[in-house]
Structures are given as structure tokens and as C-alpha cells.
Amino acid sequence: MASVNSSDWRAICEKFTTALNLTDVESHKDPENDPFRSKYKAREILREIYSSLKNVEADEGDSESSGGRGEQQAVDGGKDGPCLSGDSPAGLRAAKLAAVEYFLGVNHVETEELPAGQEHLMNCTKLLDKWSTSPINVSLFIHVRNQLGILWAGRDETETAQGFLETAEATYLRYMKEEGSPPTDMTEYFSTEENHLTHQERTKRFELAYTHTKYYLAQVYKYLGETERAATYCHSTLQRQLQLNQFNPMEWALNAATLSQYYITKGLYMEGRHCLSAATVVSGLAGEVPSEAAAEESERERERRDQLRQKRADIARCWIKYCLNLLQDAKKLLEDNIGDLDVDRQEELRGARRGEEEEEEKSRKSALLFGSEDTFDSIASLEEKVPSLAPLDFAEARVVFLVGQTYVTQAKEYFEMDGYVTDHIEILQDHSALFRALAFFEDDLERRCKMHKRRVDMLEPICNDLNAQYYLMIRRQLMFELAETYNEMMDLKLTLANRQADSETLDNHSIKKFNHLCAASAKFFEMFLESLRSPEGKLPERLEEEVLRPALVARFRVARLYSRLICPVISDQLDNLNKSLDNYKYVAQYCEAHPEASAAVETELELSQEMVSLLPIKINRLKAKMISNN
Fold it and tell me: Which pTM does this prediction carry?
């Protein structure tokens, strides 16, 4: 009978250790032209182990069928094998075979042989399913279902993956409720007694397996559109990684920053701020960015320098979005039906602020917080510098704005125009949006106008210099924003001039300034419309859905702008009014020819139709006046 004696068992354990070392260590040194060399060697060793275990199983079966008890050492490895109690010898034997099937399955998956990998993993589950879940096999049970979840998710069979992962989670929760003690790790099946894991090591490995379950479930729920559930699992995963001290600082920080963006879209700014503060602190654990001199000397240092700078810039961009969204949401809370600050609403919200702060403190105490003793104080300190409640006046809004502007500077240091055109412009657009949101809170119209001028100064040079062939969509965005910004400045200047004038007549300087802003706004709207022409110079008969509303709104705004230009010469007035009428007609006629477009511009269409009937009367009056003057 081919039973396993002490020396034979030690040989199996040594083979298993060699297979793990080939998989986890040596495989990283494999050459590019033979990337799976070590894993193939590990596979052969695992097959040898499997064959040895099957031979023992066959011999033990013969012994039992002949009425003998069999050799216990053949099952548990003898006196040098693992001292695993609470399970039958047959159950332990099945767990060992299942473990080898598991490692073979993972090996095939990692060498891109997915069908073979799936077969081995399923063989593992079949062996385990014959026995009740116990401290001996529960860890392996969870690991194999994690792997099957990954395998099926990679095939876009998300619901199948969900089933395996939720089974793993339910098993963990049930085991912890019923047993609670850390179970045997599957590597212990093939280790001698002196090499068994400590209680602490077992706990850490088992909790890490469940952390992986939660991480994969977060991805599955996100794919299935269950965003709230996905966010909860992601948050829990990040928290557990910190607790277990099993994380890559920059990867963890980037995941936390990404999670903050979900909270922000839901208006959960306290949670979003906490994620970003934790991301900033934990990213610091990755160390200092190597100097340029060090990076020049070593390719590895150069790569590390670039990665650190980029990921910290990405976290900075998430901070920008936090500040921008907080300001914009505050604006929505405070604006009246024409977009101005509602003073009564402002006072009402101020009165409710005390209760809101108390509620925030309660929520904070019950929230899932990140950090350990080493990092928590640093995270809390950073949070104190950034508000999470909606600003109610200019002073409060300015604090949020300045935080956002600081991160704009940080992000631009990495995402420079030379090499990162799209990213750099997106950051500038966010900077512009920060100024626009802050301007809403500013009572001084002159200062508000200067804020809009800052927006123009940062966007106009880029818009003019950008290659229209390669960056058409971005140029269109910039054109439209510049047109609207000039339009806001024009309205502000007119309001200021009317306040300062003693009569209804504007002075020449004010008229010149007003006309300049009016013409600049019209110019950029017309540039946007010109960008819609085909290479042959023709405007499309039917506008694409993504430009339908912007194009019709641009036509409407151009019409309005030409009618507002102040001209002392009647012939110039007539010329401008005719241009205005042509653009109003375009909006009305396009919607008449394409009725489905009406819903996109209901207000603009109604006003355009009204002006199409009224403007000709005004034009005829001016013509008559010009004739009488002659």
C-alpha cells in the first residue's frame, strides 16, 4: 500500500512550497518572450502533488473496503502533517484535493487558459460541496468562489459572477456568526506542524479573502447599475484594506478619490470630503516624488516619478470637482426664478444652519470613517480646512473657491498644455466654472464683471490657438462658453451704466463698452455656428442631436444681440435688425420643418416666432424715418 510516511509527506510539502514560490516570486522574473515559464513549472509540480494524493486516496479506499481502519497518517500527513481537528479524515482528504484543483485552476486562468481554469475551479467546488462548511474548508470555499466570480465577470456574465460572489459573502457571514474563530488557511494543508500559521496570520488571511469578495462585488454592482450598493461595498473595501494594512497607497488613494465623486453627485459632501481627505493623506504614504535629477539617472525612478505626479494630479482634479459641485449646488439652493440671489431664501437657510451643523456632527459619528491611529488625526485636520455645508454668502463661497483654485494649480503642474491638451483644457474649464459660481455670490457688480473677465482671459487665447481639425468638439465648447461669458459681462455693464447715469442716455464710453461686449458675444456664437458647416461650406439641413439645442440657442442669442447693438446711424440699425430677423426666422423655420426639435427650445422658439412678426414692423418704421430724413 502506497501510504504516506513522514518523509514522503515532507516531500509533498516541499513541492507545494516550491510551486507557490514559482507562482508568486519567480514568475515576475520570467523573460518577455516566455512570460509563463515559471507558472508552467508550478503546474507540473501541482499535478504531481495531485497524483500523489489520488494514489493515497485509492489505497486508503482499498484498506477501508477490506474492513481495516487504514493508515491515519496517509490522510493527515502523519505526525508531521497539519494537526487539523473537527473534520473527518475523508473531509480533510477532500479539502486537500480541492485545494490542488484550486491552485491548478488559478494557474490556468493566469496563463490565459480559461476553459481549463474553469474546469479545475469547478472540480474544487464539487469536492467541497460534498462536505459541510467548517474551519477546515471555509477559507478555500470563499477563495474558489471569488476566483469563479472574477472568471465570469471577465466574460461579461455578470449575473453568474454575482451568484458566486454573493455565495462567498453569505458563507463568510454565516461562518463568523456561528464559529468566529479564524479558519485553517488552505496553504496549511501542505505544511508541517512547525510551519502552521499563527492565530493572527490566519485571521488576516481570512479577512483579506472576504475583503476581495467585497471588492469584486462592488465592481459587479457597479456594472449592474446598482450604484448605491456598489459605493457601499467600495467604501467598506477601502476601510478593510486600511485595517488589514493591505493596500498600495496610491492605488488606495485614487480609489477613495473616485468614490468621492459618487458621494458628490448625491449631495453627500461630508462623505465626499472624508474620502478626498483620506486620499490626500494616504497618497502621502507613497513617499516623496523623486527629484528630476534622480529620475534622469534611473528609468525606474523616472517611471515612479511620473506615476506619483499623475495620480496626485488626478486626486487634485477630484478636489476641484468637489469644490465646484458644492458651489453650484449652493447656487441652486439660493437662486430665484430669474437666476439672482434670493435674499429671503438666504436668511431662511441661515436660520436652519445651526440645526444642520448639529445633524452633520451626528452623521459624522455614525459614518464609516477611514484611517488608523496613525492617519486619522491627519485626515480630520485636512477636513477641517474644507467646508462640507453649502456656502450661503460670498465669504463662505470664497473659502470653497480658494480650496478649488489651489487644486487647479496642482493639477495643471502635471497636466500641462504641452502633452495633455484635453486634460489641461478641462481643468481650465473647471477653473472658469469656479469663477462663475463664485460670481453669483458677489454683490459688487464691478467685481463680478472682473471675475467673468478672468474667465475670458484664460479661455479665449486657447480657443483661438486650438487646432480646429483635431479639437473640434473642445473648440465648440469654448466658443459657446466665451459667447455666454461676454453676454453676462454685457448685461452687467449695462446695469452698472444705468445705475450711474443721471438720465436714460448712456455716455459714449458706456455705449462703446456695451457694443464691444455685445459684438464679442455674437462673434463667438457665430464662430460656433460656422463650425457646423461641412468641408464644402454648407450648413447641415438637419442638426445632429448633440448640437441641436446649442445651435438653435446660438441662433436665438445672435438674433437678440444684433437687436441690442446701439447705433446712432439708422442704416446701421437697419442692417443689424435684418440680421436679427434672419436668425429669428431660422429658429422658427427649422422647428417648423423639424417639429421634433421644438421640445429642445420651447422658450426660444416662442420668442423667435413673436419677433418674426414684430421686427418687420420696427424695420419698416426705421425705413420710413430714414426716407423722411433724406
Answer: 0.86
